[in-house]
Structures are given as structure tokens and as C-alpha cells.
Amino acid sequence: MKLPERTVERLSEYRRTLLEYLAKGKTHIFSHELAGLHNITAVQVRRDLMLIGYSSLKKRGYDAQQLIDVIGKLIDHPLGLNVCVIGMGNLGRAVTTYFTGKRAKLNVVATFDVDDSKVNRVISGVKCYHINDLKKVVDQYKISIAIIASPPNTAVSISEMVVTAGIKGILNLTTTPLTIPQNVYLEEYDMITSIEKVAYFVKGIESK
User: pTM of this prediction?
Assistant: First the structure.
């Protein structure tokens, strides 16, 4: 089943919320509760879950653990995927620290940098390699996904190295737009653009 990109995003968000729900000892949740936690409508939640063939017991709502399992089977790789982070400045360190251990099916197994003071050290719990060893390490650990957190002026050359190394998925955290082959999936997240979007709407609120 191939799902729309935005649906996959919401399913990931639902799962995170459901995991938090379970941690609080709550076993069931209604569509309107899940919707309220994500600032969307209950209709949207029901539409997303109907799309993946899941329905609730009306009196109790959705079974949280069951729904977590259903979402996991759809969006996770059955064998899990290995991830690397490229660029171990402040952003790269933060991403590695935050991400490590968050999902059983996604594992940060290597990081990369060009700074000799970082290479061959364990940073944020993961060993850092020189970027020149990218291909060798990708092959060794069967890495499928790269998170690029390098300086913007290096993003294009690094993306080329990543594609050549055989990686099939890229999350670009730099401000440099990338062009990659169609057989590689690219997700680009620009924090500055997101903050400017928030600022625009704050301006509208303040002007009322």
C-alpha cells in the first residue's frame, strides 16, 4: 500500500501520541481526542485510519497498542533500517542525541565529519567517521538513510557522495535545496522557513 506523504506524516505523529498515551496508563483514545492533540479534525483522523483499514470500537475508542502495531507494520521497514548523520556540528549532535533509541526500526549507526578532532571519536553515543570513508561505512553497516546536517555550502557535494554510496533516502536539514535522482527519496526541512512561517502568522494575529 502506497500512502500519500502527508498521511504518512500524520500516522507517525499519531503513533508518537499513542505511545505517550500508553505511558500514562491510558489504553484507548477516541478520534476527537487524537484530533485535538494534533490540531486537526476528527474526520481527518477517521479518514486516515480508514485508509489503512483500521476502525474503532465506538464505546471505547481506538485501542492504542493495537493502533500502534498497525501503524508500525505499515510505515516501518520489517527488518529495520540503519541511518547516518553527516555533519557533527551543533545541529548534527542534537539530531543524533535526540534520535538515538527513539524507534526500534531506525538506528543511527554512524556519523560523519571532516574535522579530524571529531573523527574516530564517539559523539552523542555514535562513532564518527571521516566523510571520505562514507562508501565503506555505508556498505559495512548497510546504511539506507542519510541525514545531512552539514554547512549549507557543502550540501550539494555531500548529497552526491551519499547517492554514489548507494543510500536510498535523504533528510536534508540544510538551507540548500538538493536535486537528486528519482530512485532516491528526498525530504527537505528548512528550519528558517518554518520559523518565518510562524512569524508571518504571528504578525497577522498581532495586527488584529
Answer: 0.84
